[in-house]
Amino acid sequence: MSIEILNESDADLDVDHLAKLARFVMDRMRVHPQAELCIKLVDEATIAELNEQWMGKEGPTDVLAFPMDELRPGLLDEEPEEGVLGDLMVAPAIAEKQGATAGHGTLAEVELLTTHGILHLLGYDHAEPEEHKEMFDLQAEILREWGSQAQAPR
């Protein structure tokens, strides 16, 4: 997998850690091993501008997902498609505020937003109650697995 992480924000985040998380999520979702993903960490002004330009919403948001080749999760009985998964824009400053409110800190919130964004790139949504439940249950399951894996002795 090709995972590019660009830190265009003032945040001091471990981009290698985020790349490992992204790889974990993509592996877990059976994304093709040659798929490409770009994650940009951006400031509030940049994400506010993108949010208005692409989503028609005013003000900053936490994460934006821009799918490219409309890849979907691989099924157990078929080979996943190869291509460009897309781009994620994550705002660490927003994550810092949300992480403090949630009581789990900035890194955990950036992990959540990255996982959430990758699920959006794979076609998951949360507009309808049943979609919301499916996406957020899957997101929680992946983050639990990530946490267990990250804490396992090496």
TrEMBL record:
It is an enzyme of class 3 (hydrolase). Its cofactor is Zn(2+). It comes from the Bacteria. Keywords: Cytoplasm, Endonuclease, Hydrolase, Metal-binding, Nuclease, Ribosome biogenesis, rRNA processing, Zinc. Coiled coil: none annotated. The keyword Methyltransferase does not apply. It is found in: Cytoplasm. InterPro entries: MetalPrtase_cat_dom_sf_prd, YbeY, YbeY_CS. The keyword Hydrolase applies. SUPFAM superfamilies: Metalloproteases ('zincins'), catalytic domain. Zn(2+) binds at residues 116, 120, 126. Its EC number is 3.1.-.-. Its main location: cytoplasm. Binds 1 zinc ion. PANTHER family: ENDORIBONUCLEASE YBEY, CHLOROPLASTIC (PTHR46986:SF1). Belongs to the endoribonuclease YbeY family. Single strand-specific metallo-endoribonuclease involved in late-stage 70S ribosome quality control and in maturation of the 3' terminus of the 16S rRNA. NCBIfam families: rRNA maturation RNase YbeY. This is Endoribonuclease YbeY.
